[in-house]
Amino acid sequence: MTDVATDELRPMTPIQIQQTRDFIAGLEQGSQTYWDMVAIGDELSRDLHITPELVILYADAVEDFNPWYEGWRMNTWTIPGESPFGGAIVPPVLVSHFVLSVQFDHTKPFAIGSIHTFHDSEILAPIPVGATVRITTRATDKYEKRGRRYVRHEVTVTDTTDATLYFRETRDILSL
């Protein structure tokens, strides 16, 4: 690897430099756009175990300090926690942040030129801390608006043990 000059606008760490090189190499290989990679009806899903540690990391990152989310305590580790719903619950939009990790097919090269432009979330039930949920995305529409191409996805988040529907979302991705 040759030395790379850096400034405020260029990657500063070796990891960032390599990620940038990999991205550019992908472009040179003719990566597809998201529009080209997705067909209406495509469905992907992944399971996510929502640990007390994940909840604390998320709540700390977004500065949402609510005792309802506390299913973990120093030197005690996992505790049941308390909320009006019984035990500790997951911050309502935490699962929305994991949708992109499901929406993009990790077995394919990353699509170039995609931008998350819209989402509408519906919270149907509190998710208990410690639950394992299945996040499922399904491409439901491809449309053009003002000369731009969009792919719409419907998202559901359900419990893997009893199929409780916790969360629904509609989101659009603009594709170049």
Structural class: alpha+beta
Tally of strands: 7
Average residue-wise pLDDT: 87
Largest sheet: 5 strands, antiparallel
- Approximate strand percentage: 25-35%
What would you report as the Rg, rounded to the nearest angstrom?
Answer: 19 Å
Report the uncertain regions.
none
Provide the succession of SSEs: HHEHEEHEEEE
By CATH, the superfamily of the domain at 32-63 and 90-175 comes out as Hotdog Thioesterase
Tell me the CATH architecture of the domain at 32-63 and 90-175.
Answer: Roll
CATH topology of the domain at 32-63 and 90-175: Thiol Ester Dehydrase, Chain A
Instruction: Count up the helices.
Output: 4
Percent helix, as a range, is 10-25%
Distance between the termini: 31 Å
The CATH C-level name of the domain at 32-63 and 90-175 is: Alpha Beta
Shape: globular
Strand order of the largest sheet: 1-5-6-7-4
Write the layout of secondary structure elements.
Blueprint: H1 14-28, H2 34-37, E1 43-49, H3 52-61, E2 72-73, E3 77-78, H4 99-103, E4 114-123, E5 132-145, E6 148-159, E7 165-175
Antiparallel strand pairs: 1-5, 2-3, 4-7, 5-6, 6-7
How would you describe this structure in keywords?
7 strands, globular, two-stranded antiparallel sheet, 176 residues
Short description, anyone?
This is MaoC family dehydratase. With 176 residues, this protein is of the alpha+beta class.
What would you note in describing this structure?
The model has no long low-confidence stretch (mean pLDDT 87). The chain is an alpha+beta fold. The chain contains 4 helices and 7 strands, in the order H-H-E-H-E-E-H-E-E-E-E. 22% of the residues are buried. The protein has a domain at 32-63 and 90-175: Roll (Thiol Ester Dehydrase, Chain A). The protein has a 5-stranded antiparallel β-sheet. It has a two-stranded antiparallel ribbon with strand order 2-3.
